[in-house]
Amino acid sequence: MTIEAFANPSGRRTTGFRALRTVQVPILFLATATALWGLTNVVQKLALEEMGPFTVIAARCWLGALALMPLALRERARASPSPALRRDPSVVIATFSFCTGLCLQQVSAGLTTATNMGFIINSCAAIVPFIVWMTGSDRPTVRTLTAAAVTVAGVTLLSGFSSNSGVGDFVCLASALSYAGWVVAVGRAVANNVAACGFTMTQLLFTAGFATLAALVIEEPSAQQFIAIAPGILFLGIFGTGVSFALAAHAQRGLGICATAIIMNLESVFTAVASHIVMGEVLALAALGGGLMILAGCLIVQLKG
Predict the structure, then answer these.
(1) What is the pLDDT of residues 176-194, one digit of tens each?
(2) How many domains does the chain have?
(3) Could you tell me if residue 133 is inside a domain?
(4) Which of 110, 183, 207, 255 is the most exposed place for a label (fewest CB within 10 A)?
């Protein structure tokens, strides 16, 4: 399959500058989102030194929704979604999957390294085809089953067979399952012309409300916690949450589910680089091999012959 086919899943052929723009803009949007997510994985761990995981989620989602509000209002003024789109089940599935994935990811940030988190979260790319198959008609091929086996082996190597790190790594894997469902649901929702910024803001507001209740019950949030890590929380909320997820939703209009999963693998690379620079994390040889196996599994399952 050519890159144009990935970027234009409808099958309509475009040529010249228009074709180039069709390919480049969504890829640029999604690559930017993955870079922001890679940095976000590091900031999440630093934020946990000052506050609990649900407090971090509540703060980043409220800030992300606030940042997107002007764009969502602009979308609504230009064209309101039809009543049918408001009842689109993909919107509901995406919202719940996003909330579950983000909460599990934030909890795992305190139980494993940022590098491991980045690689394991990206194993969702090998899970996506199975979700598409179970909710549609595309049966998994031998290539898909091979990729899944390689990815699982990579996760095992990356966890280092350690009972301590394994807990966090498997929480990451549960988060990856949720994100895989989110990728599929978002792809189907935006294919129905759901407004990307408004759609993303809905997910953020739902997650922010849930996390706020959880933080008030389980944790003890305070103003001092936010002040201590204000720059990191602002980056995490505005750029690592609001801007990045809106860019990803916009990108899926032109890329489709399979291409989205491929490019999302870049997140693990950005996470590993940022973790090394900021936190001094270094992958052991076995863990490095595990991370490479995860990337290999994601590429095997997505690339077409």
Answers:
(1) 899 999 989 988 888 777 7
(2) 1
(3) yes
(4) 110
